[in-house]
Amino acid sequence: MNAPTPSALPYAGVRVVEFTHMVMGPTCGMVLADLGAEVIKVEPVGQGREGDATRHLLGSGAGFFPMFNRNKKSVALDLQSPDGKEAALRLIATADVVTENFKPGAMAKLGLDYDSLKALNPRLVYVSHKGFLPGPYEHRTALDEVVQMMGGLAYMTGRPGDPLRAGASVNDIMGGMFGAIGAMAALAQREHTGVGQEVQSALFENNVFLVAQHMMQYAVTGQAAAPMPARISAWAVYDVFQVKDGEQIFLAVVSNTAWVLFCDAFGFADLKDDPRLPTNNDRVRARDWLIPALRERLATHSAASIAAVFEANGLPFAPITQPQDLFDDPHLTATGGLAPIELPDGRPASVVTLPLTLGGQRPGVRLSPPKLGEHTVEVLESLGYGPSEIEALTQPGHT
């Protein structure tokens, strides 16, 4: 599946200048970049700084930079120096969107906050990604895990008494996505008003949006939602089963029709005809003995054979997959779900593309994650800087 040509992408011709690090802000820029925008990442250098700090993270942070910074250009500037700040202001004067995700007040100290910039560029859309929207908590420092704990998500994910963060940076990523949605909305409104505006997205409010279904469950039923591992399932068969050779597979049988198909496929006529099990709710009430019985019966089957039966009968199932296994997933490789990139250290890799299609095509990768300052000269030249000025700005100890 071929990616759309750059000129065919919806945000082709839109320039985004981002002052971001970690995951939330870079996600916003990545979404806009994948949809065609020219995204210029301004990375701080000098005075002990070496660009976006996620370039150097280990462990669970090692994938942050290559995942969230494809399709971007990198400009390295010392924003603490007058010349570096002047270059940043010249760049912002050409921008449609500026994004940032630093602590409250950090951009104001640099004179790069929205109130300072809207006079320079009244059409500017300015996207701030924070821990909290303005209010009593706005002074706090937030991280994804912080808001998961205080926002009910860790409670819902873990077992009772054992709160557990979700297995991905869900608030950082979704918070960046909402920042991008806000930028899109502001750009659309600018078509009517001719002026930009400030957009704010926040981790805590994003987390509350994620658990809002559980809040509304309480509003509707008067019963507090139980953590997911302890919930009373709405369906009788909706579990992970350990089968032959210790393999695991998730199986779901969620309707009366599916129950008949399941019993027929595996030869469980006695269960199909059991007067205690005619409806889903009856089977839910019988889970205490039904699920152990099914575990025993299915334990002699391989995961692959069970999967084949479920697929043939249109029943939901899933292998228990580790993230690295997805590089070889036949569906992803066939549909453009993975795109080739070059890591900043020169090694080849694949990266996950946006989970959507435009005209039947997945937006792809036009630019690999940039090396630090890879596009500084190109961008400065486009702003009218001459060779000697560029040389001065890019000298070690100055930029």
The gyration radius over C-alpha positions equals 26 Å
Global geometry: elongated
Approximately how much helix is present in the residues? 25-40%
Overall tally of structural domains: 2
β-strand number: 12
Number of helices: 17
Strand content: 15-25%
Order of helices and strands: EHEEHEHEHHEHHHEHEEHHHHHEHEEHH
Poorly predicted spans? none
Q: Residue-averaged pLDDT, rounded?
A: 95
Query: Structural class, judged by helices and strands?
Result: alpha/beta
For the sheet with most strands, the description reads: 7 strands, mixed
CATH architecture term of the largest domain = 3-Layer(aba) Sandwich
Features:
2 domains, 399 residues, seven-stranded mixed β-sheet, 39% helix, elongated, alpha/beta, Rossmann fold, three-stranded antiparallel β-sheet, formyl-coa transferase, domain 3
